[in-house]
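Q: Can I see a sequence and its folded structure?
A: Here is a first one.
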Amino acid sequence: MTVCATEVAARNANDGGAPRPGCVITADGTYAARLARAGKSWFPERWTLDGPEPYAVPLPGNQPEEPGTEVLPISDGRVLIHRIAGGRHLFSLLYPTGPGTGELLLGAVECRDPSDRVRLLPPAPRGGYAYALAVGRSSSVVWLVAGGSFGPERLAEVPGRCSGGVWLDGTGRMLALDRSLGGRTKTVVVDLEDGGSVSPLLQIAEDSDDRLLLADPDSGLLLIRSDAPSPGRGRLGWGVLGSTLPVRFPECLRLRDCVVTPFAIQPGQVLTPESCAVALRLDGAVGSWVGVWRPAERQVHHLAAPEGWLAGAGRWSRDGVLQLPYATGVVPCGVTRVEVPGGVRECAPCVSVHVGESADASVPTSTSGDEAPSEPQSLPLPLPELCEPVAARPVPLREAPLRGQVGAQWASSAAGQGFSPPPPLPVPSLGAAPPDPRCRPERPRPQTPDGLGVPDLG
């Protein structure tokens, strides 16, 4: 039985600096995969999530895997594994065969320079395909490693060293990468069906480092980390794909003594990106817990993570239920479903605080604050002026509101103290009903700003 999560995978950071999730979930939410441990041995494990109850299938090979070995679930139930042997990057598909594990060798990617790195990209919208990114000294190559006709296929080469990897559409055509070139990092879009053509996406300021963390194809919501509003310190912001609205950097996403990493966006909110719920992984000195935030709100709701949560892993349903996978000694494969509080609603007028002034807070269940114009306003999203029609490709997000930026003053009950995570949720036994939610989300109120557009990528 698997009794512990993938600590190594959860603690290691990828090229973009974000912590790796405890497991990887397919785009459609049917399967998950992780590197599990029994004693001192590591082995791949597949989770089935689309049944009445989740269950795990171990997929051990002839020998234990190395810590940090990458695995990725395929929509047909197989698991892609990425091993390194003799300087070559080997890719195979694993599948259960009765009491044993079947393995289909797909091929290898060989790098000329020993310092080159190869890693798997996040699950593609087309679940039968899997991609990898090879990062060299001066360029990066996107490989199709599963789903091709003759083993790994070289798809595109991008000048510069790339990190990240976010899918912008539902077909697996448009891939966003964070490219470091000329001393700065900017997000670019690679069209995998147009010979690997590259176009800019994030260019908030000339001297800023801009990275794309998450994107939702339904609403066009983008989650961004950039140091444009505070040079040298990355801040979380949000924008809309294909829109001329500026990037916004909510003050409520700046938490003291915490690393905030978004890991899931609520799907199905077509043309209403401000109503999408965003799940946040919060890492502090006392552990990891979950936060929930919506662009239309000026607060972060802090939720207790289940015991044994595979930190950074989770998925939203269309009706706003957050699903968090966990593994303990009692329940080796479980999913907690939580209906989170909040919804789209009008906010009270903000108290303006100019940048540079201190406004500390310590709120156990929510964190408030947002940037605002020079005069307080009652709506979180002021309506912009009419703009020209949006182009058919993703357009660069520019003109972030950096001048005269102000933020909402945080309510303070214990100024100067950091946040502490809520106590862990009780873990139900197998077959037990999930715990009753404390609060049901309000029904989203449609709200479509002028100028909002989602490009046609077909």
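Q: Show me another, different protein.
A: A second, unrelated one:
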Amino acid sequence: MLRGRAGTEGSRRATAGYHAGCAPCRAALVFAEVGLDAASVEAICERTGFTRGAFYSNFETKDALMLALIERVAGEKIDEVAERVAVLQARGEDLEPGALVCQLQDVAFEKKQGILLTSEIRTRAMRDPRLAET
């Protein structure tokens, strides 16, 4: 589930774009492969099937798309962790913080593209205070 930042035009457009067939999922691959700065709108459009006009009607900028991705990825990770904790609790497993981290570690580190996208998100957030707030 995408969790948008309420009240901003960019987030409303980003949220609307996310629900249009998961184009941001395909755009995430472009960001993971080459990074946000090197990803051209043309490359994103080619991967997502958007025309340039469709891209800009859904996202004001590449940064707005990246913000939608950040919100989506963070929401998915929170949901995955909550589900995993519920399973561990149901099994009666040790929920001491150290043991819990060991049980949840694979949620954060999965496929190569996920690792690359997460690295790109973290790097971007360190450079852009707006993204760091997300």
